[in-house]
Amino acid sequence: MGIGAFIIGDEIISGRRQDKHFAKLIELLAARGLQLNWATYIGDERPRLIESFRRSFATDDIVLCFGGIGATPDDHTRQAAAAALGRELVLHGEAEREIRARFADDPKCTPELLQRRLRLGEFPAGAAIIPNPFNRIPGFSVCDHWFMPGFPEMAWAMTEWVLDTHYRHLHHQREVVREAIMVYEAGEGDLLDLMNAISEKYPGATLSSLPSFGGNGVRRHIELGMGGDPRQVHEGMAEIRAELARRGIEWTEGARPA
């Protein structure tokens, strides 16, 4: 089981609005000892959404989805999720109660307007709701997929509720650490044999290599690091440091160039 994310909206793809969900989701997961395994940005294009959801529904992943669950013509997420599952889109009873309660005291909410707003509670058959503490218009969940609005002030509180209510048993299951060093004046090709050997020897840790050509007073360097099981990270990085010293390659501790 992994954790994935769909960040949905033409406004994100076109650059009219900057995405805030990706960084915040990493932060919310890290606070619970979890990490994101994949993320996909996708526009409000129903056929593409349907195909993307079909692929993700076929996995065991927990998938957090942001955006496109409104009732305007450019919102397709609810319909696409239903189509991907081969289910009807139906008015959810609990969502209907929440929406009716939300607008019960609104004198501007005519019966016709209320019927349009109730479309916000139409979810794939068999879905459950995600409570929305901001305005009571719920999101929905189905098959470990969690569909929330694109508005950060709503989505982030809903995401925390999902993680703490349904996946608390996954929190801090294993300790994860990260170590990194800066390697100078060496190319990735020069270190490929070392990186391959370390990755094969320590499968419980993930090795990363982030090269930079330098410039503006910064030397050419590679940020070389490992993250994962503490013992494997410590032992793997110790071997990397020793081998770099043996080869006469300069390095310094930390993830910033000296």
Tell me about this structure:
This protein is an alpha/beta fold and 258 residues long. It folds into two domains: 3-170, Molybdenum Cofactor Biosythetic Enzyme, Chain A (3-Layer(aba) Sandwich), CATH 3.40.980; 177-253, Ribosomal protein S10 (Alpha-Beta Plaits, 2-Layer Sandwich), CATH 3.30.70. 39% of the residues lie in helices and 23% in strands. The protein has nine helices and twelve strands. The chain has helices at 10-13, 21-30, 46-57, 77-85, 93-103, 111-117, 152-166, 188-201, 230-247; strands spanning 3-8, 38-42, 62-66, 89-91, 122-124, 128-130, 139-142, 145-148, 177-184, 205-212, 221-228, 251-253. Strands 2-1-3-8-7-6 form a six-stranded mixed sheet, sandwiched between helices. Strands 10-11-9-12 form a four-stranded antiparallel sheet, with helices on one face. The chain is elongated, with a radius of gyration of 23 Å. It starts with a strand and ends in a 5-residue tail after the last strand.
